[in-house]
Each structure stands twice: as structure tokens, then as C-alpha cells.
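=== RUN LOG ===
request id: a7f3
mode: sequence -> structure
chains: 1
length: 425
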Amino acid sequence: MQLSLFTDSIHPALAPTNLTSSRHPIHRWVNFIAGYSPEFISACIREAGLSSGDTILDPFGGLGTTPVQSLLDGFSCIACEANPYFADLATAKCQAALGAINPDEVFSTLHQLVPYKGELADIYSVDALIFLKKLIPETELRVLVNARLKELEITPNNKLFYRLVVSVILELTSKSQTDGIYKAPTTKKKSNSFQDALLRVESQIMADLNLITKKHEISYEIIKGSAQNLCQSISSIASLCITSPPYLNNFDYAEMSRMELYFWGYASSWREITNKVRSVLIPNTTTIPINIKKNHELYAKELSNEFIEYVRPIIDELKIRKNQRAGNKEYYSLIFPYFAEIKKVFIECFRLLKSNADIHVIVGDAYLYGIHIPTGQLTLSLLQEIGFEKTQIKLLRNRESRWIQSKREGAGTPIGEYWIYGRRP
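=== RESULT ===
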């Protein structure tokens, strides 16, 4: 197989981005910058030549790009997502892709809302309330709080779709700019009133749902929790795997959803976000739990001697540079945990895939204290060690000049994003 799926679809540089999501029903409701394109999913499906009844696998489900597009293309999907908020919204989008939601109940409820009259401190912890008040005008927050409370009255099968709609409105009412992917309370943007946001969201969602036909012959499963929970699934059930693991030192997927985690009550403090969310994520940033940092060397036992031999000099150099920098970030403590956990997930993918099934992976390189970490090549080597055959890797794009900055000493070339292919024998 030659890695050239995009000659009739989109430019390869767009494959690992969310830039085309705004063109697609359901996908455009909620996505984030770390996502990849629906076109990439469809191209992989076409290339695999799947048959009716085949199932697609994504161990890093995110906000549902792979499962949603799989369903829209007529195939069942199994996905796993560790961030509980992301998992809930991905589930809601899958329900919508099957035509299995009732928008009339949701929007009728929201149009009748009035501001919450009680004490906000009765709803939120001190930490959560301080943070939310920095992001959302109190007049709008009080309507949103009533929206949260009204969720209890929504039909069970409609609750997650309701949560998705309110979450999109929550974002539109925020007065704080998103800096990259993180909410920056001190950076202001124009906020929408609850009613204006509701009308805007309702218009887009209803237009999209008019394009969707109900599907009964296919299904989805979103497994909430660590991707290692895939071990509970039976072997040889998937005919194709399409995924993108968290990039090393790229985004803190708990911090990026902090507003929503607080608003819905998934967590009530920074500590709870770490204990409930970060603890089950792939350890890809220095905000990982302290116990992982302290025991990072123990993760080496999951990796081959050849792999350890390659990354050990990188770890040693990162320790040296950590002591030379004012920030003192312990980047060295990420290397073994990150790749060990990624390897465990791909071992499960190997087990779950049928014979001759393809795997497609999008991943990006990293620079840590000016040291290049060739994550693409290292991920390729992990797939080869696990037993995937016919492996290939292709550079899709360089991640722009902003990645070559003076603070990234030694970053002589842009960070690459790669498409990795393999086949289970």
C-alpha cells in the first residue's frame, strides 16, 4: 500500500487538522484543534474496502471524529476516551449520527429557562466558582446553572445530547479568549447572551439533523476511561483502526476542558481534575500526577532493550538541561511513561483487529528543551515490535514556523506530523 489517500479528497497537510470540520454536519458542533479531519477517516475506510457489518476501532476517541464519521459512512465503531467530558460529548454526537436523539425536547426546555435565583456557592465549590466567574458573566452563568439543573428532567436517552447543546452555549457565553486550547481568563473576547447563543446553536444543529437519516443496522460503543479498558473487549472484532494518540508535550487534555469539568461537576478542584482525569490520560505533559514522575523509570520494563537504548541518551540530556533552566520542567520523566502507555494501547489494538486489518495513526514529533524527540519514528518502531507488518510512515506537514522559536533552542527544523500505517498479519 502506498500512503497517498488524499489525491481525490483533501490536501495531505489538512489530514491531521480540524480545519475541515466546519464543513461537516455534527462534527462542527464541537471539536478542538488537536482533532484530525473527517476526510481522513473516510479515505482510510475507502482504502480498506470494508464490508457491511465491519467495525472500526479508535482507542483515543476524543470528541468522536472517528466514531461519528464511521457511523455516517455506514460502519459500526468502538472507541475509548479517558476524559469523561469528551466521552460524553462523543457519545451524544454518535447518537445524533444515528438519528437517535430528540432535539425538540432539548430546545423546548432551554427556551423556557430563567436565571437561577439561589446561591451559586450551593452548586459549586470555591475553586470551581472562582474559575467560572472569571470566564462567564454572572447573568449568563445563572441561566446556565439552571440549564445544568434541568438536565435531571431530560429523558435519559437525550441527556448527553442536552449536555452537548448546553456545553456549546457555555463556550459561546464565555467572555474569555481561548489561548491555543486553554481558557485565558485575562484575555477577553466578545461573549454572547444565553438567548443569542441558544438561537445560534439551535439553527446549526437543526439544519444538520435534517441531513441525517436514522440508522438501525449499525452501532457504536464509547468506552469511558483509559484506553487500556479495551482489554475488556473480545479479540478480533475490528476490521480497521484509525486513531491519533496525544502528542508528547502538546496539550494537557484535562486543562483544556477545565471550564466544562467544573461546570458539569466532573471535578470541583485542580486536585480532583488530576486525580479523576489526568490519572487515566496518557502521560504526555509535565502536569502528570507526581507518582508517575517519581516512578518514571519503572515504565521502562514495558519497552524493548533496543527502544530503551535509543531514548536513554535523550532522557539523560533532558536531566542535564532541566538543571540548567529556570523552569525546571521534568521533561525526562515523560519519556518512558508516555511510550510505555502508548505501547500498551497498541498491543490491545493488535489483539482487537482481525487478520489483515489496517491501522492508521496520526502523530507529531516534539522538542523538549531544544532536544528533538522523533515521536513518529519511535511510534513506528513500537508498532513493528508489537507485530504489525507492511509498516510505512509519511510526513503530512510541518507544524508551521511558530514551532521554531528562540525559546525552543536547537529546534532547527519544524516539528513534523506523520501518518503511520501498518497491517495486522
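=== NOTES ===
The longest strand covers residues 353-364.
The first helix runs from residue 38 to 48.
=== END ===
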